[in-house]
Every structure is written in structure tokens, then in C-alpha cells.
Amino acid sequence: MDFFEHQDQARRNTKQLIGLFGLAIIAMIVSLYAIALMGLVSFFEQPLQFWQPDVLLAVSVGTLSMIGAGSVNKMIELRRGGPAVAESLGGTQVNPQTTDFKEQQLLNVVAEMALASGTPIPTVYLLRHEIGINAFAAGYAPDDAVIGVTRGCLEQLSRDELQGVIAHEFSHILNGDMRLNLKLMGILQGLLYIYIIGRILTRSSSSHSQRRDRDGRLFCFGLAIMAVGGIGLMFGRLIKSSVSRQREFLADASAVQFTRNPLGLAGALRRIGGHGTGSRLQSPKAESASHMFFGAVFQPSFLQGWMATHPPLSERIRRMTGQSVAPASVPTASIATPNELANAGAMGLAAQGSPSTGSIPVGSASTGSTAAIPPVEQFMASVGTASPQHLTKAHAWLQSLPPELNEALRSPTGAMALVCSLLLDARPTVRSQQLKLVQASSLAIEPAQVEQIADLLSGLDARKYLPLLDLSIPALRTITPQQCADFFKQIQALVKADGKLSLSEYVLQLIVQKRLRPHFQKQLEQPKAVTNLLPLWEDCQVVLTLLAKVGHTNADDAFYAFKSALSSLPGASKRPLPQALPTFTLAHLGPSLKRLQPAVPKLKQAIVDAAAHAVLVDQSVTIREAELLRAIVITLDCPIPPFLDTAAPSSQTMPTKAAVPNR
């Protein structure tokens, strides 16, 4: 099952959730209707009549209103996505500039996995008061995702075990589970409202020092309502169980696929089994988020089977290692872990011996050689996944960064200075004007720091500027909304300094806005899903036209690439194809990508496949094509790892405006 099928499966799970939710409501209405009939007999001494449509209508409206109010209230609370969940559980954001070794290690492991899988680096939260071993991923989309870990994770797990847990959580991000999990939290909260109301009634009636008969009946009525609320609680756990358990097996398998290290993840599960607290959490909010966690947050014995949100630890370990071992029977000290990933023959991200032509033939992406451009099929298979090779390269590359650059990336001003340095022009007059714009801004960015970072970048492979941009995002998320708005204005001013827009400038703006806007803008109403390619046909042509133009200087070659890519779209044979390359420009790309975003996963799969055809049809790829294709795929919410080992520039010059790719 590939990335797009996982997304479709998540959509189908949402429909299943709605069906089970409907059954829960029906069961609660029937139960409350029976209680209402008994209440009429008890309170008003009416004769018992089983069929009273007016009572059934009143009960139905009241029940739906209470459940709806509970769900809507919770959904409003969750509008902020992942951060709202993490903070409700007592989590605090890990500062990118932390000096704590364990926290630095956690941030590095998360960054490695993000770079290897092509996802934005999630914001990391630490549940400092939770000593159980657990973790979760939450958010509506990869761009607003957070990863939370308990203090027990940092204190009890080795680096390999922590990496296995983080890889498990990244699989939830890549497989589309997060959005479904947030929907579960919001919808199921409504089912609990009936129980809460019953509890209020019982407490109210029992608070009287001298309870009258009427108070006694109210107390009994409250208990009955609580019992009905228990039905909602039971259905809620059944719904979470039906959705969660198989997704946990899938996440375990994906984590092992990402790391090729089953002992790391299995070791973490064994530590849970041998730890006194296990994976349990103390937070009173843990129940509503129980389906999100790496391990079970509560383990009552009567729920171990068909109502458990997680499979048994022993079964998860058996599927990964083939060993039938009871987790609790394995002492922590006896857990064998493999050598650190850094000692497993880490490879640098830069290709060796790149030709000076700027393009190389298609080949295997896993070899690390210069002939490492994947064919379309391999490219499509890499969407939404990570490989051990990419993980190894990401780890090695992070370790190789100059300390000054690494330190700058962890601070807000340093991260902003990095972005500004990527926009500097090679021409002294334009460059001087840009530095004056930096000096005049209200963002406290030092022009000297911008130039210093530019000097550091001059010694790096220019193909790694976009990964560096991704590394700057966590620090940029810590600025205020006003600073973010001013920062976007600063970027615009630097781009306009020479009076023209280059492709690399456009790509940089596209990615920065995509990564940051979910954190600084209110969640807008989700557009209706597009299930047909017909209304998107012209937008597809915009994307394919620009990719074809970027990769070919010859008009005939560009038209051939465009036509080949367009022909690969579903239904292309039934539509008249253009007889010449359309005249779309970069100004058309932004609006088209915005209209393509609501497409359902299978349509996005077809669009990304066609885009890959436009780039790879000539069996070679340039840095310009790689950057634009990567930006387009990212904008469509399709995570893509570093997949195109394009040739390095013939000389490593200052990464000024003239030296940045796409000039």
C-alpha cells in the first residue's frame, strides 16, 4: 500500500467512524427514551405507554443537541491542531536552543526523520510530568504536526529505541492518521456529554443534607443518565479500538521499514513492558487522546481485548522480531540494541564526482552514485515514505554542518538571517541594497550575520539549500504573528531588489509560506474535496508547462515533455491536447496549486505522476527541475524525501543571488 492508498484508507476510516457514531447515538436515544418514559410514570404518575412520539421527538432533539454541543465545543478547542492537543496533556514546547543533552538528541532524531521523509520538521513537545514511556503525533496536516514525548521516553530509552518510537509517530503523519485522530477526539467528546450531565444531576441531588423523595428520584434519574452516558463511553472506546489497533500495526511496520532496525522499536516496547509505570499517563485528558499514543495510556484488565486501543505488546514485538516474548519478562538491562546509526557507514548527502553539466542520467536512487535519478515509478513509490539510506544520509549531513551554521538555525534571528542569505544577489550594487533593507527592518536581523551565513553556505553543496530551509522552520515558528508578517514583507523586499523574480526565489517563497502559514493564520474552512480531474485540467497544464519549460531550453523538447506528461493523466485520451506549449508563467502557478490542493489523494497521485513524467521523460534532471518539482509536490501535501541526486555545480562559489540554482 503506497502513500496515496494510505490517505484513501484514512478517508474510508472516517466514513466507518461516522457509521459507528450513528449507532452510538441511536442506542443512547433509545435508552434515554426508556428513562423518560419511566420518569413520566415516577414523577407525574402517568400510565406507562411505550409509544409516545412527542416524547421520542423531544428526547431525540435533546440528545442530538447535547452531543452536537459537546462535539462542536471540542472541535473549536482543537482548531489549533497539534499544539492544542499537546498543551491540553501538559506538554511544553522544546526550545530549539535547548542545552539539555537529551532534549537536543530528541530534536536531532526528529529532524533526521523529517529530512529523510521529506516532511516539515514537526514542533516537539515534552510531557515533563509523565514518567511513563509514551509518545504521540497530532495535527491536521504535516505542516502543523507536533510530536510529543513523555519524560519517561527521554530517561528510559536509548537513541536507537527513541528513533524507533519517533519513526512510528512519523508513519502516523505520513499515513494520514493524524487528521482522523483529531476528528475522533472532537466527535467522541459529544458522546461523553450525556455522562457528564448525569454526573451533575447526581451531585446536585446528593448535595442536600436532608434529601426529600423528589431528590431521591432525581438522584436515581441522574444515575440512569450516567448509565446511558456509559453507553457513549463504551461506544467511544469501541470506535477508537476499531480504528486504532490496525493502524498501530501499520505504524510499527512502517517504522521498521524506515530504520531497518526492528530491535530499536522492539526494545522500546520491551522497556514499556518492564517499566513500572509502563506507558500509562497521569493526565486526566489522556482518555480522550488515548488512540493517538504509541502505547496504551490505561490498561484495565476487562478492556485488554476487544475494547483496547492498542494491540498487546507481545504481539507487536512478535510481528517485528518473530520472537514470542512476554514484554514484562525481559529485564531492561538485558535489552540488546544495535550500534548507533552514525557508525553504520553513514553517507553524506552530497553526491561524489558529479559532472559539471548540471544533469545526469536516470538510475537507482539508493546507490549514492552520481547516476542516481530514479525513474518515475521509483519516484512515485518514494512519496510519503523514508528509506534507511536517506535516514543515514540525513544523520551524517546534520553532523557535518558547521557549528556556527547549526547554532544560527536554532535561533529565530539566525533562521531569518539564513533565509535572507539565500536571497542575496551576486552583483555588488544589488547586494548592498539588500543588506540596507535588512538593516532597516524591524526584525533585529544583523546584516553582518546574513553575510557570515552566506560565507558558510559558500562551502556547501547548493543542492542542500532547501534542506537547510527546512531546518530553519522550527525556530521560525517561535516568532510572533506580527514578526512573521514582517518577515514575509522582508522576503518580498529582497526578491524585488533587482526588479525580477527568479525560479529559486519563487520556490523559496512557496516553501516558507507553506511551512509557516498554518502556524500563524486561523484555520479556514476546509474546501470541498475535488474528486474529478475535469475542473482541474487547466491547472494541471499550468504545472506541467512550467516543469517542461524549466527542464528544456529547446522549444520542441519542452513541448514533447509537456505532451508526454499531459497524456499520462486520467482521461487525457478523451480531451483535445494542445498543439503547442502553452504560455503560462510563474504568476499562474500559485493560484493553480491552490486549486489543486483539495483534490482527493488518488487525483493528487495522478497529478504528481504526470509532473514526474515532465521532469524524467528525457532521462535526465537539472537542479532547476528538481527544486520546482519538489516545491510542487510539497505544496500538494505529498511528502517527498531527497530523491534527485542532481549534479553539483561546476564550482562552489558564494551562494549569492547569481550563484543560487535556477539563475
Explain what you see.
Helices cover 58% and strands 3% of the residues. With 663 residues, it is mostly helical. The chain has a four-stranded mixed beta sheet with strand order 1-2-4-3. Strands 5-6 form a two-stranded antiparallel ribbon. The radius of gyration is 28 Å and the shape is globular. The model is unreliable at 327-373 and 644-663 (pLDDT under 50).
Strand-pairing-aware structural class: mainly alpha
Distance between the termini: 39 Å
What is Rg?
Answer: 28 Å
Q: Strand order of the main beta sheet, please? A: 1-2-4-3
Summarize the main sheet.
4 strands, mixed
Q: Shape, please?
A: globular
- Contiguous helical run count: 24
Secondary-structure element series: HHHEHEEEHHHHHHEHHHHHHHHHHHHHEH
* Proportion of strand residues: under 5%
Q: What helical percentage do the residues reach? A: 55-70%
Total domains: 3
Poorly predicted regions are 327-373, 644-663
Number of strands: 6
Mean pLDDT: 80
Summarize this entry quickly:
The protein has 663 residues and is mostly helical. Helices cover 58% and strands 3% of the residues.
Which characteristics define this entry?
663 residues, mainly alpha, 3 domains, four-stranded mixed sheet, two-stranded antiparallel ribbon, 24 helices, 6 strands, 58% helix, 3% strand, globular
